[in-house]
Amino acid sequence: MSDRRKPTRGAYLVLAFPLAMLLIFFVAPFAIMIAYSFYRRIQGGFYEPAFDLASWKRLFEPVFLDRAAFSIGISLLAGAVCITVAFPFTFFLTRMRRRPHVALLILVLSALTLSEVIVGFAWSVLLGRAAGISNILVWLGLMDEPRAYQPGFMAVLLGLSYIAFPFCVLTLYPPLSRLDREITEAAQTLGASPWRTFRTVVVPIMRPTLVAGFLLVFVFTLGSYLIASILGRPQHWTLSVFISDQASFNANVPFAAAMAIFLTILSLVVVGIVMLIESRTRSAT
Amino acid sequence: MRVLRWTITAVVILFLVAPLLVVAIVSINQNRYMDFPPDGFSFHWYAELLNDPGWRNAITRSLVIAAGSSAIAVLIATPLAFVLRAYDIRLAPVFYALGILPFMLPPVISAIGAQVFWLSTGYFQRIENIIISHGIFFSTLPLVTISLAMDQMDRSLGEASQTLGANPRTTFRTITLPLLLPSIITGYAAAFVLSLNEYIIAFLVAGFAVETLPIKVFNSLRYGFTPTIAAVAVVFILIAATVFTMFAIFGSLLRFLGADPGVIDHDR
Amino acid sequence: MGARGGLKLQGLVKRFDDVTAVDGVDLELPPGQLISFLGPSGCGKTTLLRMIAGLEQPTEGRILIDDEDVTDQAPHIRDMGMVFQSLALFPHLTVAGNIGYSMRIRGVAKDRIRDRVHELLTLVSLEGLADRRISQLSGGQRQRVATARALALEPRLFLLDEPLSALDANLREQLQVELRLLQQKLGITTIMVTHDQREAMTMSDLVVVMNAGRIEQMGGPLDVYRRPATSFVARFIGTTNLLAGTRGSDGVLRVAGREFVVADEAAAGEVVISVRPEDAHLVLGDPPERNSLPGTVVFVRDLGEMFECYVDCGLDDNVVVAGSPRERVQVQQGERVTVSFPAEACVVVRAGDQA
Fold it and tell me: What is the reported pTM?
């Protein structure tokens, strides 16, 4: 059955406005940014139009490649952590009774409305020496003296996981909610323990969603700027921190532009690789 | 399995709640610095929010930006979502991807793009720049919610109105648009919240001239911390929690989040 | 006002990509009657209705209503009312809002709308429900609202796409009668699509039986039942026994070697005869010379108000004999009987059809 009508001239006209907006304020900026990456930097924080590969050459310095590898690594890790916790959590959530179900969802949504800077601040307190988790542990007698866990790698990882977690839950929620209860019940009547059912039935069915959630967290945390700069030392700073610093404080926009493009390509490559692995292993089963 | 279920749920609840608690406690702390156990309690940081013109202006600016940019986001997303779903357009997937892309890219990249764009126009460091850029980059949210609503809408409603004599424009005005209103509002609200909290685009585009709330918060953290920041956060959390709770009571929060229809009605 | 809504369909074809939904339909339908398009799912009946409504464009052919060519007219200009399978009631409007919609968008005065809505609600027995929300109505009530909405402006054509399919059996039968009485009262030309042949038989003045995009037969309900033109029609309407036979060069028709006499003497070569179960009889004792087949009783169903007896006569399917308890011949499973097929009940159907 034909689903949609043939477009009229009016339809194209209506479409013109959003497309024009996107072209002017989204596509054009990107084209300009690509051009800027080839500009030459002049003393005093300015730049002139040119075709200079200096910015691009700097990308291959070890300092920079090291930053890139670190960023990719920590984002992949954050993805793994989020999915590992969010998946069973959301699974149990969808099977809860209404009151706790709704209450937990409101909690997750409320965490979502916290801005990144507030999250960074809160975790810096929680992991700090003055009034954080370690203080509570000392007060409970489980530790001798308070310690600061921030700034540090774990702090950044925790912070990234925190901001990505609600998105992860909300992505997993619809498919898990729609997972037919009778499928898990059938598995159990066939003799599978709850754990076995989860492992051999639920996980395989949910695989595409899990991969999607993982990639979502990866891309999302890759772009995070504030968490890494608040909760991490310079060696924990991600590429995004570098890029924004170059763009603002160092006023080296060409280099920032080159890094930004590189980061985009890199994330697309990683996403592509993960999806390739997923489809390969899927056809093997 | 029981044990696992409760352990994970408890851990997650603790994990999610901890920062909220910290922020709440800091906001009512008597002293300027965070100490444990806290010294005394006071609400004067909240009063500070209202009295200090610096904070008041930052809040106002952010609200204005959020309201304006969300409107732009909806104005972009609604025609796009509607036309792409109602008509058979040849390049539809491309146009849809174009609408999704802004949100998919890491914000810092979008921020740089916006920054160089406005610089090259010669019209920069203005609040309008932020409003427009936010509008573009958050248009993905209403695009997704409205497209979803279009997909779920019964096609025969539009056909029925035509058999009753309504031409396509009247059908859109009296039938489609009213039914899309919930998803439009949701998209607006989502864009609003994100714009309110957005830092990097606002900073790179107009950060030196226009101090939005997130920029002020970040600056405060770096150059002199006050618990007023925490007060701001608590206010936002309370508003959000209230809105969601109202939604849950009067609307259908579960269905909105994509729950299976069968789940929604049972076990009330 | 002469009868409006006379419909002429000329050479209608509808193709979707590689599927031909409607494969050449020519039809002339009189005004003022209730006509059913009947057939299995996928036969093209809904596509045909949607083309009449203007919701699909024909690939070929023309549609004329009261001799006016409406083929290229957009749906909102055609003067008709349609009830959709999903009813398509506007969820954001009340009952009155739905029924008054077509008047509202034409700028009719508010009080005139209110009066007309009240009139229509009385017509469909839903007085007092004007301000209800759609979600508060039962299935039967929604159906009536959809009907009232379609009839608000007294259109010349009333189109129904499987209007009762969402209702449970009891409600269906009740609403079938109600809709039919309403149609007769208003004298409005009505076209109804259904896959339920009992529904078509109950309500229609004319039945158009469709299969694979073509019309198999058109006629009054009893005509189509008693004199099916093809074996498809014979099987689709009610149940029937199909007997395959051959008319040899000697002019004699034989089924399974037994001589048969039928009204249609001209039929030659491979012949298929349709005999309704209620027309066939069980015979004990001496078998009649012609129009009978011997067999073994396979199964007997005693349903109280009627009985059905399945007899294996060596054909592809078992022969079914049905009748009232009075006619019940005392036979048991496994017994040998003869089934007699009276000549006047034998209808020759065109044999070129799917088995």
Answer: 0.77
